[in-house]
Amino acid sequence: MKTHYVLISLLAFILISSFITQLISYAHLTHTPHYNGGSNRDGMGKYYPYMALDPEYATPYKPTQITFSIQDFDGKDVYNIETMVEIYEESTGERVKGFPWTLRDSGDYNLYYVFPQPGSYDIVLSVANDNKKVNQNQLDPPRSILSSLTDCNCQRVIFNVTISDSWGLIRNSLLVISILIPLIVLGPVLGGIYLKRRKQRMYSRPEKETLKYIIMLLAIAGGLVHLAIFPEHGSLQIYYAIFLMAAAGAQIAYGILYILINFAEDPYEGNDRSRILSQYRKKTALNLFGLIGTSILIGLYAYSVVVAPPLSPDNKAEIIDIAGIMAKSLEILLVIGIIYLLIWEKRRIIKILVSVK
Q1: Which residue, 208, 353, 184, is CA-closest to 279?
Q2: The listed CATH number (1.10.3720.10, 2.60.40.10, 1.25.40.80, 2.60.40.1930) that belongs to domain 37-163
Q3: pLDDT tens, position by position, 200-218
Q4: How far apart, in whole angstroms, are the C-alpha atoms of residue 42 and residue 288?
Q5: 3-state class of 33 per DSSP?
Q6: Nearest 5°: phi and psi at 30?
Q7: Is the dihedral of CA 130, 71, 47, 30 positive or negative?
Q8: Cα–Cα distance for residue pair 227/287, rounded to 1 Å
Q9: How far apart are CA 328 and CA 102, in angstroms?
Q10: pTM attached to this predicted model
Q11: Phi then psi dihedrals of residue 55, to 5 deg
């Protein structure tokens, strides 16, 4: 039981940590930026600006959407503000693009730009203090000091972004490696233990041990897939982030519990009926937890690809992708395995109870 409490505490810690790290208002951005975006801590005058690139791991020579969301310090929307946006190449200090002073109906708006080459860029957002005192529809001269407010009745903030041909590939490769390493380490260890236990029981009938190992690995694999898609999907909405972390944590915890169960001795040994029934109820509860939880995940996925899920940032159904197909395939196999194991466990306990006087 102490092990169960440790696992439950670990899962709770994961969920709370995820909630705390994600519980940041990112205004009306389409996703929570982890790279090439964010907000300025000090704000700009009476405003608090946010910025994000889409795609987040932007590459040169391709159109990139630059999203701004400007609010006041109470988190309320602002309207009818005059803004100017400039893009400077960091290595040369040259201004490569400018969007002139424009009256925005709302503080939420998008601009589009094709970055000319890989490298670091400074995106400078200027907001007028008084719309009547700026050169509307005109662009101010370039500046050597980007934050300078000389000859401008405005406030400025600078966002630093990095444009790369390969960073997205590097990030995805590191993510795959981080998922494969635990499997590569865990696989041989569990395989060696499994073969050793099979050898020790070579003269007795294995108690569905292979199926239990398969269920354990399917559960852990499903959790790792949810962790793999977390950076992309979790950034769309804070609630998506919490959900994906909760699903991954629950699946991995479920798989770990199965590891502990398989390392234990046969819980049905002996002639104590109450003890045997107690052990059976615990195993059944664990299997039902996996069955119900996994079925809910499959159902939610099916719902999300048919209609727009709740709190969707674009109010559209999710696109069926390879990661989703992989995760749901693993979960369907997991459900089939758990159902079969539940039926087998029930038949087995009946026989055991009949034989126990």
Answers
A1: 353
A2: 2.60.40.1930
A3: 654 444 566 677 777 877 8
A4: 50
A5: coil
A6: -70, -15
A7: negative
A8: 22
A9: 47
A10: 0.55
A11: -70, 150
